[in-house]
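User: Could you write out the 3D structure of this protein bound to protoporphyrin IX containing FE? I've included everything you need below.
Assistant: Certainly. Input first, then the structure.
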Amino acid sequence: MTETSRIASFARFSWGVLAYNLGVILWGAFVRATGSGAGCGSHWPDCNGEILPRAESIETAIELTHRLTSGLALVLVLVQVGWALRLFERGHLARRAAIAGVILMLTEAALGAGIVLLEYVADDASAGRAAWMALHLVNTFLLVAALALTAWWADAERASRALDAGGGVGWYVAIGALALVVTGMAGAVTALGDTLFPSATLAEGLAADASPTAHFLVRLRVIHPIVATGTFLYLVMASALISAARPDARVRRAALALVVSLAVQMGAGLLNLALLAPVWMQLVHLLLADVAWIALVLLGASALGAPRASAVTRAAIA
Ligand code: HEM
């Protein structure tokens, strides 16, 4: 096998690891949405005191499946980092991203274990649980970013370009990433509110949102769509500015993917609200959030690696 084909196999494997992890993340949301987080009692890593229990209830089966599939996710990132360490020299961007992937997978597992051990499960409606869910979402986004970047930078040509954050591009990307993370955190709190305090009708839900006597998780629900709208408008503008600052086909494609996925996500959010957040719609909405996040991460990576507009114009004149 040549060096090029070994790297191509690694890149294919890495995109596969990313796709697999998106599946694990969706299943994790399914655990929350179906109230199955206590399916193994408050035991971790064992399940109800046994390593491999017979699933007595559907909740145990759902929670156990999440543990087994996330265990395999850990094995996959360990294989990935071992492979990256052998394939790429010290300092290579793909190697660094793969190392970050393992660290973030371990913190993800620790946050997941914390949910069970702190009993932030089933109908617990504490502020601690809300904060923990928001933190879990931040870690998940960072993990997805590390996995996407490992695959992206496995390409020798992309990794060989020096990163240049100048011309405002670094700021546009960083502010966009922060805004999307905050939107996701607010979404995680909304999702918890919807799971614990479901509304029978949209009118009843909206009335509860505005009621000063409602539970804080219900009153906080309104923040997410407002923050999401601001983030959407900012990222549409930032995508245009980044594309103008770094005229490059890859940057244009990533910017388009970001704007389209965000526009679809805004529609999905409204539908989520109108349908009173059924479980399938929660999963679609979370998947779209991850897709938009990956598009932003790859927009950042391609823009930081692309030549500035002034350099492109000079090259065209010469
Ligand atoms: C930039 C656009 C948006 C992003 C990135 C986003 C992201 C998210 C995320 C990450 C969650 C948590 C999912 C989970 O943990 O299961 C969530 C939940 C939620 N979002 Fe959004 N959202 C966006 C726009 C909107 C809009 C415009 C609305 C409504 C008008 C909305 C309504 C909801 C609702 C009702 C939930 C709770 C139910 C669920 O989990 O799906 N979202 N959002």
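Residues 29, 180, 183-184, 187-188, 190-191, 194, 224-225, 228, 231-232, 262, 265-266, 269-270, 272-273, 277, 282, 285-286, 289, 292 surround protoporphyrin IX containing FE (CB under 6 Å).
User: Perfect, thank you.
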